[in-house]
Specification:
The chain is mainly α and 183 residues long. It has a single domain, classed as Up-down Bundle (Ferritin), CATH 1.20.1260. Helix 1 runs antiparallel to helix 2 and helix 1 runs antiparallel to helix 3. It is 70% helix and 0% strand. The model has no long low-confidence stretch (mean pLDDT 94). Bound molecules: fe (ii) ion (FE2) (2 copies). One of its GO terms (molecular function) is ferrous iron binding. It is found in: Cytoplasm. Keywords: Cytoplasm, Iron, Iron storage, Kinase, Metal-binding, Oxidoreductase, Transferase. May alleviate iron toxicity in the presence of oxygen.
Length: 183
């Protein structure tokens, strides 16, 4: 008896997304190594923690496809793109990666909608929410660096930024958690 509860098209698309998340993990790991090597240990730590988070996203896609009776495939990972030029470039790239990933998630949501696969549609809503958080986090990085003085930041303000990010929350503050006492 065929117990598969997902179409071949969605099975493949979600499997591809698993690999996209693995690539994101790879990319942030390479940025983390770059930052640590430059002496920004806090930022490096932040990026490496983020790399782990992306791997967890990949595992969520893997588990979902398996749960629906499908089988995801791990494809060969392309190597991470080269090192960022500087911190501004690094954070801009993080933001760009997140926006591109959001577009990929939206595309999957569309596919699930068209197939009326509500289980997959519902599964993907977690990622829709998560991407709001990821984009906010990336925007915060860009803002923090701007406030510190951007590429012309003094050693002291970069030192403080690095220290802050080393122990920063991994989650951004979002509107959904806000209330009148804690806007
Ligand atoms: Fe992700
Ligand atoms: Fe992400």
């Amino acid at each position: 008896m065929d117990t598969k509860r997902i179409s071949a098209t969605l099975e493949e698309a979600l499997s591809t997304q698993m690999n996209v998340e693995l690539f994101q993990s790879h990319t942030y790991l390479s940025y983390g190594i770059w930052a640590t090597d430059k002496g920004y240990d806090g930022i490096g730590n932040f990026l490496m923690r983020h790399s782990l988070e992306e791997r967890n996203h990949a595992i969520k896609f893997m588990q979902y496809v398996l749960n629906r009776g499908g089988k995801p495939t791990v494809s060969a990972l392309k190597g991470a793109e080269g090192d960022p030029q500087n911190l501004t470039d690094c954070f801009n790239r993080v933001f760009k990666h997140e926006v591109e990933n959001t577009e990929k998630i939206y595309n999957l949501v569309n596919m699930a909608f068209e197939e009326k696969d509500w289980a997959t549609w519902n599964f993907l809503q977690w990622f829709v929410k998560e991407q709001i958080e990821e984009e906010t986090l990336a925007m915060d990085l860009i803002d923090k660096l701007k406030i510190a003085g951007g590429d012309r930041a003094t050693d002291e303000s970069l030192f403080n930024l690095d220290k802050d990010l080393g122990k920063a929350e991994d989650d951004a503050e979002l509107a959904r958690n806000a209330n009148s006492e804690n806007p």
